[in-house]
What we know:
mainly alpha; 1 helix; single chain; rod-shaped
Amino acid sequence: MDIAALHQGYSSNIYSTHYQLEALKQQNSKYQQELSVSKEQSSSESQRISILCKEIECRALPLLRDFQKAVNISKPSMFHHRQRLKLQKDKTNQLCCAPFSLPVIF
Length: 106
């Protein structure tokens, strides 16, 4: 085999490998840029979600406090209502369940 032919084959192989390496570097650079953009978007979305969570919390807490106040206010009236129902039930039971005797007719 001719040395010049071997050298030419070796040379073209090196150039081919060099071009492949350059293409991979460019592709890697492109992927790195895309990754950077993706991280930036993710960070801004995380910040947006955090802001929305705080906004929801700020709006929900007063509503929750109002609800708790309403429940606390209604507790005594519910207790009294239950007591009245129990008394009515007891009276009804006394009236309905009292011993009843029919007069005896001869």
